[in-house]
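Cross-check.
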Amino acid sequence: MQKILFTIIILITGFNPVKEAIYKPVAVLELFTSQGCSSCPSADKLLGEIDKSYKQDEVIALSYHVDYWNYIGWKDPFSHKDYSNKQRQYGSKFSSSSIYTPQVVINGEEHFVGSKRDVMYSKIKTYLEKKSLNEIVISNLSNTNGLVRIDYDVKGDVDAKKIRVVLAIKERVTAVGRGENRNRVLKNYNIVVNEVTANLTASHGKAEISIPEIVENTDKLVLVALVEHSNLGVTAGAKVKL
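Predicted model, tokenized:
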């Protein structure tokens, strides 16, 4: 009888408490930056400040180093064409005619100039007041022979969702010899060095990601797992230290 009543409620009201479940909010910041861009160091510094100002399960800050600044004389060691293409995907979503640095995308939903402190804190506040549609829990983390493995558990509806696993260096200092930032010593934070994405076919699963050669023995690493829908919007996130 209870099952019948539950079904009738869904048919009449359209409300399904399983699919409409909401979870604790998270703000995911993706900074597109480059060591070859003179406007970027202030945004990099702000990202590091943000990372230290919030709990790791509240705000997840990542920096993606793009490669289109490399032509100016300094090849950013963390840059990759995939991260430039990722930014272009966001540009297409936002109907932007061009891409720029420093750009922050928050929860895959909107963007702003990454060095604007007041905007950054305001947007974080806004997104931390919104409930998430999913929650992801990371467990059984292991690191063997340069391969990091995790188990994950996603709460909420996983239909048409993806899991994105990101590996980042906590922070690294670089002496820049050429380009717009020549003779400057730059500190970057949560530098993405690898990323893998897969379709979510179940709420529970396993994922793995390799540690690239650019990672040094002294580097501290973080692993981030994100849930996103087909239009790049982030619906959940979790971060752990390696």
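Residues 1-18 have pLDDT under 50 and may be disordered. The two ends are 49 Å apart (CA to CA). Passed to J.P. for a second look.
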